[in-house]
Design a protein that fits this description.
- The chain is of the alpha/beta class and 282 residues long.
- Helices cover 38% and strands 16% of the residues.
- The strands form two sheets. Strands 3-2-1-4-8-6-9 form a seven-stranded mixed sheet, with helices on both faces. Strands 5-10-7 form a three-stranded mixed sheet.
- Helix 2 (53-61) links the parallel strand 1 (40-46) and strand 2 (69-75).
- Helix 6 runs parallel beside helix 11.
- The chain is globular, with a radius of gyration of 18 Å.
């Protein structure tokens, strides 16, 4: 059975439709893996994620990790029952009233007690060895950050073969890009780093997207960013921004054109990036 299949039973469901025994199971399992002296802070950020958060926490509750961890949440001032899910599952959480991923991740960083910060997106599910796999890499000398890959949840709206082709081409592009511009291959839903250096860099909060790439860019001066390709660290998520571009084919076309235009950048480093006006929070 696919490791994430059982979590799909509550994915996209409002809280009132979720069986109480599942909530109890998640709470019990999370309480057993929480540690008061964590090496790793697993930080779940959420904004109006009532229909996804429980599946996310359920997957995290099944984590098998030899390192001591804490799981904490950040509610980005949601208007749905997101905060209630954190409470019901016993996950300590903090409320960030300024809206953006940058503010939410910074809030988590400010409250994290571990040596390493694992970024978790609440609409994503993670395999049981995910945390341990990333931390094993972070524990190696000279490594300051690590990022992995992700797949999309199969559904009837997106052809299986098309999705797999899209993922293969995207993964190949991220792999080639990671040699000279690793910061552009980092994605927040599958990113982890050393907290000491992360606090020195800090999160940018004045931009709508790219806060994790910016963090990775700043971390480069402290060490290497390593990319993990094993399926043990491959998350599964919804279609998010991919679906925002209309049809799956149109989304693929937009990204393919952008990749071709920027192909030369795969072979050169970049020391500075300029903000796009449309990406600034005003």
């Amino acid at each position: 059975m696919t490791w994430y299949k059982k979590y799909l039973s509550v994915y996209e469901k409002p809280l009132q439709e979720v069986p109480q025994e599942i909530i109890h199971e998640v709470k019990t399992k999370i309480s057993k893996i929480q540690n008061d002296s964590p090496l790793v802070s697993v930080v779940v950020i959420a904004y109006n994620e009532e229909k996804h958060l429980l599946a996310n926490l359920w997957s995290l509750s099944d984590s098998t990790c030899k390192y001591p961890i804490e799981i904490i949440g950040v509610d980005n001032d949601s208007s749905d029952r997101t905060a209630e899910i954190f409470k019901m599952t016993g996950v300590p959480y903090y409320t960030e009233y300024e809206h953006s991923c940058g503010f939410a991740r910074r809030c988590g960083l400010n409250h994290a007690r571990g040596k390493y910060y694992i970024c978790i997106d609440s609409d994503t599910m993670y395999p049981p060895k995910y945390i341990e796999t990333l931390v094993k890499v972070l524990e190696k000398p000279g490594i300051v950050a690590v990022s992995s890959l992700w797949s999309y949840i199969p559904d009837k709206q997106h052809p299986w073969l098309g999705v797999k082709l899209y993922e293969f081409l995207r993964d190949t592009h991220l792999f080639l890009q990671s040699f000279k511009r690793p910061e552009l291959s980092v994605r927040g839903l599958v990113f982890a780093y050393n907290i000491e250096y992360g606090k020195k860099v800090g999160y940018r909060v004045e931009i709508k997207r790219g806060e994790d790439g910016s963090m990775a860019f700043g971390l480069k001066k402290y060490g290497k960013i390593r990319f993990v390709r094993t399926r043990k660290a491959r998350a599964v998520t919804g279609y998010g921004t991919v679906g925002a571009d209309g049809s799956f084919f149109n989304s693929f076309k937009i990204r393919a054109v952008k990749t071709v235009k920027n192909f030369g950048g795969l072979f050169s480093k970049k020391e500075e990036y300029k903000d796009e006006e449309s990406n600034l929070i005003k």
